[in-house]
Design goal:
The complex is a heterodimer. Chain A is mostly helical. Chain A has helices at 2-42, 76-112, 119-153, 167-194, and strands at 58-60, 68-70. Helices cover 72% and strands 3% of the residues of chain A. A two-stranded antiparallel sheet of chain A has the order 1-2. Classes of the chains: A mainly alpha, B mainly alpha. Chains A and B meet through loops of A and helix 3 of B.
C-alpha cells in the first residue's frame, strides 16, 4: 500500500510539473497574441501578406475538415477581421485553459502532500466545473463567428448557421461540479478522522 | 460538547507527564494534548484502552458527562 501510494504521489508530482510548464507556455502564448494584435494596428491594410513572409498558397478552413488554398495575393486589410478573431479566440481558449490548469496544479500539490480531501480542493473543482460549463457555451460561439468570417472571405453562399452547445464540455463541467461535492464531503470525513485519536 | 476529558487530573494523580504517556500509548503529544483540552471529536477504543492501561484507571475516570442544559 505504501509503495503504490508513493508511486501515486510521484505521478501526481510529475503531472503537476507538466501542468505548470503548460500554464507558463499558455501565459507566453497569451502575451504573444496580445503583441500580434498590437502589431496589427501598426501594419498598413494595403500590405500584401507575402511581404510579411507568409507564402502563397496558404490554407484556410472554417471547420478544420475542409481546407481551402488561397492562391492569389491577399492584403492584410482583407484578412484583418479573420486575424483579429483568431487572436481573440486564441486568448479566450488560452485563458480558459490557464484557469483550469492553475486549479489543477493546486489540487495536485495537496495530493502530493497527502491531503487531497480539503475544503480548498472542493472550491477549486467548483471553479473548474463552472469554467467548463461557461466555456461550453462560449467556445461554439467563437467557432461559429470564425466560420462566418472565413466563409465571407471565401465568398461562399450560406443560408444559415447552426449553434450547438459543446455537450462534452458541458457534461464534463457538470461531472466535475458533482465531484466537488464529493470532495467537500470527503473533507468533512477527513476532518473527523484527523480529530479522532 | 457535554463530554469533559479529565486526563490532566488523572495524570497528576499518577504523577505522569503528558509526553511520557504519549510515548507509552503510541500517539503524538499534540494528539494527546488535543484530547486533554477537549479538541478531539472522537477517541478509538484501542486508544482509550491503552490510556487506561498506562494510567491504571477506568474510562469513567478520564471521561465525564455533564448536562449542558
Amino acid at each position: 500500500m505504501d509503495d503504490s501510494l508513493k508511486r501515486f504521489r510521484s505521478f501526481a508530482k510529475l503531472v503537476r510539473i507538466f501542468l505548470n510548464i503548460s500554464f507558463w507556455i499558455c501565459i507566453i502564448g497569451v502575451m504573444i497574441l496580445i503583441f500580434c494584435k498590437i502589431a496589427l494596428l501598426f501594419i498598413s491594410n494595403d500590405t500584401i501578406i507575402t511581404e510579411l513572409g507568409i507564402s502563397i498558397p496558404f490554407k484556410l478552413s472554417y471547420d478544420n475538415i475542409v481546407q481551402y488554398n488561397i492562391t492569389n495575393d491577399v492584403s492584410i486589410g482583407d484578412i484583418e477581421p479573420i486575424l483579429n478573431l483568431i487572436i481573440l479566440i486564441g486568448i479566450i481558449y488560452l485563458i480558459v485553459f490557464c484557469i483550469i490548469v492553475k486549479q489543477l496544479t493546486v489540487i495536485l500539490k495537496s495530493v502530493e502532500k497527502g491531503n487531497p480531501f480539503n475544503e480548498n480542493n472542493s472550491l477549486k473543482l467548483k471553479v473548474i466545473g463552472t469554467t467548463l460549463i461557461i466555456a461550453s457555451l462560449i467556445t461554439p460561439i467563437c467557432d461559429m463567428l470564425l466560420a462566418i468570417k472565413v466563409i465571407q472571405f471565401l465568398n461562399i453562399n450560406i443560408d444559415s448557421f447552426n449553434y450547438s452547445i459543446n455537450l462534452t464540455m458541458l457534461f464534463s463541467g457538470l461531472l466535475i461540479l458533482l465531484l466537488s461535492g464529493v470532495f467537500r464531503y470527503g473533507s468533512k470525513l477527513q476532518e473527523e478522522y484527523d480529530l479522532t485519536i | 460538547m457535554a463530554i469533559i476529558v479529565r486526563l490532566d487530573r488523572v495524570l497528576v494523580e499518577q504523577k505522569m507527564m503528558l509526553n511520557e504517556l504519549a510515548d507509552r500509548v503510541g500517539i503524538t503529544v499534540s494528539n494527546l494534548s488535543n484530547l486533554k483540552t477537549g479538541k478531539v471529536k472522537a477517541i478509538r477504543f484501542s486508544t482509550l484502552n491503552a490510556i487506561c492501561r498506562e494510567l491504571s484507571c477506568q474510562p469513567g475516570d478520564i471521561l465525564e458527562y455533564t448536562d449542558d442544559e
